[in-house]
Design a protein that fits this description.
By secondary structure, this protein is α+β, with helices and mostly antiparallel strands. The protein has one domain: Jelly Rolls (Sandwich), CATH 2.60.120. The protein contains 3 helices and 8 strands; from the N terminus they run H-E-E-E-E-E-E-E-E-H-H. It has a 4-stranded antiparallel beta sheet. A hairpin with a 7-residue loop joins strand 4 and strand 5. The protein is globular and about 45 Å long.
Length: 154
């Protein structure tokens, strides 16, 4: 039996790929207020949140970082590690104590290059997350700036 609970985010991967990827995971903990990475920094790892919350933010000169999204249980933190130039597009800071699985990005990229089927599965998994987050950001921007909002009638 796998030593790690199956993240809902990782369920998108076939079992054999999920198990290989989770074999690289390391359990970590961060106190509230920990800066995980800064916008423009080297994207050398990523996380799947087990407990707690992490805010993704964008640097705004002369102001506090603008929070773009809050991530929680079972969500992927960081996708810039997969796509060149491997530099963070946003910053991330814990907003509560966090426990997470941490992955070394280079080790995962090496594994993906060695097994193109695994690489495609991981790329599809991360790409789906990026696409969903872009759609969500677009909707939030429309709600703020468009004359009639996003058009979502919830």
């Amino acid at each position: 039996m796998n030593a790690f609970p199956i993240s809902t985010m990782l369920r998108a991967l076939p079992v054999e790929h999920r198990e290989r990827l989770m074999g690289l995971a390391r359990e970590v903990s961060f106190p509230q207020g920990t800066r995980l990475f800064k916008e423009g920094g080297r994207a050398d790892r990523f996380w799947i949140i087990r407990t707690g919350t992490i805010a993704l933010g964008m640097h705004v000169p002369g102001r506090r970082a603008a929070v773009i999204e809050a991530l929680g249980h079972n969500e992927l933190v960081g996708w810039s590690w997969l796509f060149g130039p491997h530099a963070w597009c946003l910053g991330a800071e814990t907003t509560s104590p966090v426990r997470a699985y941490e992955f070394d990005a280079e080790a995962v990229r090496v594994m993906c290059r060695a097994d193109p089927v695994l690489g495609m599965a991981v790329t599809q998994w991360v790409g789906d997350i990026v696409a969903r987050r872009l759609r969500s950001a677009r909707t939030r921007l429309l709600d703020v700036y468009a004359p009639y909002g996003s058009g979502n009638s919830r």
